[in-house]
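example protein:
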Amino acid sequence: MRMEISIAVPDPFGTPDASSAFSALADAMHGELKRHCYRMMGGVQDAEDCVQETLLRGWREFASLRDGGAGRSWLYSIATRVCLDALRTRRRRQTLFGPSLDEVEPGTEPWVEPWPGGVPPSGPERGQDIRLAFVSLLHGLPPRGRALLLLHDGVGMTASEAAAALGISVAAARSALQRARIALPLKGVVASGDVPIEAYVNAWNAGDVAALIGLLHRDIVLTMPPWHRTFLGRDEVARFMTGVWPRYDGFRAIPVIANGQQAAAVYTRRNDAHYLPHSLHVLAGGGQVREIVLYAPPLAASLFSAFGLPPTV
């Protein structure tokens, strides 16, 4: 739920103008802060929780902001520290109690949830990347390296500003940035491209597995987070699809946008019942589908709710 800050609250700064200024800053930055926290945390709800904590801390600390023009970078600094605190808490909880299913499957790495929608085509975060493959690669970096990379390359802070935001030396920040850039294999990220989403959705709706397979590039890669299931090449994916297809009485697919990419929300049914959420397919490629990240059951119901999709069709 989005945080609303009322100017009727007694003003800790002594002037109503300060309260109004913070409310305006918070409203203007809510969306981009949530996307930044998503890049840090890898989950939509975790990102929203971090934004709420960021705005609460910002409200308490606003009197310390001397330069009104620095409000954007100041809030980004707070948001990044909040995320790092949340990641440390998550790590301690997993050490004490073990991983929960929504964070990680036992024996595997944490998985990244899909983001409903994309990044605005203009404005301060126009160049910031939330493609699913890119965010997944970010989560292969240590949290501090991830934070520095996002503050420096995404937000546009200098190395010294990013170092100050995290309370580390400039030398440490530059060293961590260099390591992060070396570790991040950007050339391995498949471009979103112009995938044939209409034909993909039509093939599901028609129950035409041959038409679906015909849309796939010969080197297609299909993954199924959080499970360690990877299918490589059109033949292997085709065997998987043709094996799954007969288990259901029909499909309904709806085109959506996830992480700024074309995606399909697929519903299935059995025994002439209602069509229920089955899986969310995030696509990448160009002309043909080169990659599918398929969020499989039992995750679909919660993901469809996050995307504002109906529970049945």
